Amino acid sequence: MRIDGVWHRSVRIDEADGWSVRILDQTRLPWAVEWLRLVDEDQVAHAIRSMQTRGAPLIGATAAYGVALAMRRDPSALEGVCAMLAETRPTAINLRWAIDRMLGALRNLPVQDRTAAAYAEAAAIADDDAATCEAIGRNGLPLIAEIAARKPRVNILTHCNAGWLATVDWGTALAPIYMAHDAGIPVHVWVDETRPRNQGAALTAFELGAHGVAHTVVADNAGGHLMQHGQVDLVIVGTDRVTRTGDVANKIGTYLKALAARDNGVPFWVALPHSTLDMRVGDGVAEIPIEERSPAEVTDLTGRTADGRIETIRVAAAGSPAANPAFDVTPARLVTGLITERGRIPATPDAIAAMYPEKAA
Fold first, then answer.
1. Max CA-CA distance within the chain?
2. 55 is in an annotated binding site
3. Is the separation of the CB atoms in 212 and 181 below 8 Å?
4. Rounded to an integer, what distance in angstroms lies between the CA atom of residue 39 and that of residue 228?
5. 219 annotated as a binding-site residue
6. Helix 56-73 with 41-49: angle, nearest 10 deg
7. DSSP for 56-76, written as a single string
8. What are 223-255's pLDDT values in tens digits?
């Protein structure tokens, strides 16, 4: 993503020392752009849990670098470190995928060789994610171009943040949008605020604005109204886990957007990298673990006051309890199709198995 005209990745090795890890503190966005320096696996775990870094592909890549940092300190601690990092967030399967890949690369090496190998494997995971997301963008671009051929402007609705900030580079759901914009296609994005953490209003709006993409922030419940009035041509969302049957876990509220899209004949596409597929799961509603986060994310809001201070205030009635399921599952029957790095496919078991035979096996 471009920030002040400079292209950045969301996670990288610190150029100053060549071993520590830099991430953008997403809890400070959009108010401030601050790069955190992480020096050990405990700081990486905290960054993932606290959502200083977030997004299914990005937490996988960041956790991989956490393993590398741990190997620099104690290369004999591989199994324990990987187990600890794998428990930081339960829903996004990319985290477990990246940890398993690190284990596979390091487990049988002599301890003295693990540090260099860990850094190399973490870098390979990050490069793979960037290349995968760029390919997702290319494969999703024709969906937007086809609409642009018959309309003066393409209106796309997205939920949560599935852009550069959720991946190493490009994004999943936003990658086709960036490519359309860069190709000169007039595109406009309806950005769901995405309560309770407001990842849409704070993060998606920030990165679209930084890239120069036209967008409008709307309340989460406005999507159905916009669809009823013909103001949404296409819905594209990301995902934290896709089952072998095509069920999709994504930020809470995605299921309702899919229902509204189906009722109004609006295509509902899901963009995902290979690391998000979980072939072990068949029934997403019954089997995908849904993270329950702090009630304070629902009862409290953080924002900038008129005099520039960042403050947190309570918006719920005093004494009222709150529940905070962070994700929901959209059944495959509501998904028009999947945009992957290998192409676009229906959200069906046969199509997924044919596109990813090595995973099906």
1. 63
2. yes
3. yes
4. 50
5. no
6. 160
7. HHHHHHHHHHHHHHHHHH-GG
8. 999 999 999 999 999 999 999 999 999 999 999
54 labelled ligand-binding: yes
The set of residues, in sequence order, having a beta carbon less than 8 Å from that of 149 and lying 6+ positions away, is: none
Closest by CA to 171, choosing from 196, 145, 206, 134, is 134
Write out pLDDT tens, residues 71-82.
999 999 999 999
| Residues constituting the chain | 361
Look up residue 159 and give its amino acid: H
pTM: 0.95
Domains of the chain in sequence order? 2-128 (1.20.120.420), 136-360 (3.40.50.10470)
Let me know if 113 is a catalytic residue. Answer: no
CB 109 within 8 A of CB 117: yes
Active-site choice (128, 220, 233, 240)? 240
The answer to the question of whether 199 is labelled as a binding residue is yes
DSSP E strands in the chain: the ranges are 2-3, 6-7, 11-13, 21-24, 35-38, 154-158, 187-192, 214-218, 234-237, 241-243, 248-251, 268-271, 277-278, 300-304, 310-314, 327-330, 337-340, 343-345
Q: Is 2 annotated as a binding residue?
A: no
